[in-house]
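Case study 2.
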Amino acid sequence: MKNLFQFLVLFLSIYSCTSRLPLHSFEEEIPTAAPDYSNINHWMAHPDKLDQSNSRPENVVNDTFHLDSIDVFFVYPTIYFKGSEWNAEIEDEKLNKRISNLVLKNQANVFSKMANIYSPIYRQMHIHGYKDNINGIKAFDVAYEDVENAFKYYLKNLNKGNRIVLAGHSQGTHLLQKLCNDYIFEDDTLLKRIELAYLIGDLSIRTFSNSKFSMCEEPDDLNCYLSWNSFPAGSSVSAFKNQNIPVSNPITFRDNGHASLYNMHKGILFSSFKFIYRKSKILNSKSLSVISKDGLLLVEIENFPLWKIYKKLLGNNYHFLDYNLFWMNIRENFYHRMQTR
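Prediction:
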């Protein structure tokens, strides 16, 4: 339980409302340097470097999952909360360390040993950009420019004919949606190469649609996308009701609206967020059930010591745990799904 408490406290301290606003308007700032994706150091994760996307909890037993010739292009979420500019600097060592320990080690690593993971450094938009329709849009466009350039570089220089999977969270998912709409969907040949997309943790998914790339409906579907936003059971967003917003069930991976059984849940990933991850663990208990309703993934947790305390810390949104809550289920499904072809 100590590790879980550390996990929650660290997340809450980083994502808290103490984040400060950028000091200037977007136009008043000196533009930050753009990434050079021919430089391996401008990739947070890359198969030719040692990074936290390769980390797995050491007490995950009987995990022999291994797949070849698959690439995951992973775009990380907003970690930039306290900077004074609208876009993060790519050489910010403190920020990059947070990305590595918080995101690569808890989200991107779900694909470890099963795929080559490419995660580009990008000039991510400040969290307050989502509250500022003027500066935020311009800052988001800078972030998107980097992600599109990274993907184009990846296709030309790194892919080598491998199968392609997209994955992101929060701002990363928002950027991937734009990449699909503005670039991938314009090229039918390229679109056919995108075998799967994890568009996780972004409520704007309700505006994302393409007849050629739809929501996955079965556990072994390919050439489709998965999406969910985790909330406590009983939550609702009035604007989402009766809107038929697609929601994937990350335990059953079936689009049938049924609640998952508790014994189908494989475990939750916790971490002390230290480079030495031997304290990380998978909690294998019949503790969690989910159901999709009105555009949200509603999470019911039982048989979990002191959960009421942690729930108070998390509040009414499990956004930060969109991958962690279902880490092993995602991992096992990815293995079996990608074996189907």
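The two ends are 40 Å apart (CA to CA).
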